[in-house]
Amino acid sequence: MLNQIKGLHHMTSIASDAVENNAFFTQALGLRRVKKTVNFDAPDVYHLYYGDEVGNPGSVMTYFPFQDAAKGRRGTGEVGETVFSVPTGSLPYWADRLGAAAEGVQSVDHFGEKRLTFRTSDGEGFAVAEVTDDNRDGWTGNGIDADHAIRGFHGATMRLQDTGAMAELLQFMGYDKVETRGNVTRFAVAEGTGANTIDLEELKSTPHASQGAGSVHHIAFAVENRAAQLEVRKALLDTGYQVTPVIDRDYFWAIYFRTPGGVLFEVATNEPGFDRDEDRAHLGEGLKLPTQHERLRPFLEQHLQPLGN
């Protein structure tokens, strides 16, 4: 069993409009845009990062906003819900705030946690959950005070036709099985980033999802450094997984592999971080381009939608 995985690092999804996406995450959810860059493989499309003050691992939601992309179809073989951690007692505040900005807001109890579930205009599933033992500081720079601010992820729910193989993989990655309620089983990793839970929802007769706007592209798990990442990569290869070489993503190094249930996993390093090319006071303000796309800057600065603050 691995011991290098430290919970979630980030989540990456697809959106249909960059301006709307930026407004929802910075204004409605109050997160900080910590990086404005482009998709490595499609540089005419933004890659936007939202998180806490410095984009700590376990706090960062990232997006590829393909303009006017068709909505994905919900189903199995995907991350169906991403869950943010908020302070105890803050759900009434979030009910008011989300009621004006999100769709399908509902109050639920999940493994004894009070939650509000909601959807973006693209149909992506989210929740805010009251978590009592989360000591992380939320970002308050966008007008939400510390008593209510999102502190990062709490976890995520994967929807699968059969959870058996995924459960084995998570346990191999260092997650412990915590509890099963109905068709949902919770797993957690100790001493992680704070984004420490994964729930597996088994939906045997539900068709597979089809990716599009509102779909999670991949879920990324955190390791401290490149040495730990190489250890994880070797262990996965030895177990039979097809794992990519290490890829430099400018703000972390990444490896990817497809899981038995169809979900794309990434293992990302906590180093070097989002302040490697911007002062912390000005994260996410300038357009930062990968070296290979710097020659495209004049075109991209004209082509990409202005986002505002």
UniProtKB/TrEMBL annotation:
Fetch the PROSITE patterns from UniProt: VOC
Which residues are in the VOC domain? Answer: 152-270
The record, for PANTHER family, names: RING-CLEAVING DIOXYGENASE MHQE-RELATED (PTHR36110:SF2)
Q: What is this protein called?
A: Glyoxalase family protein
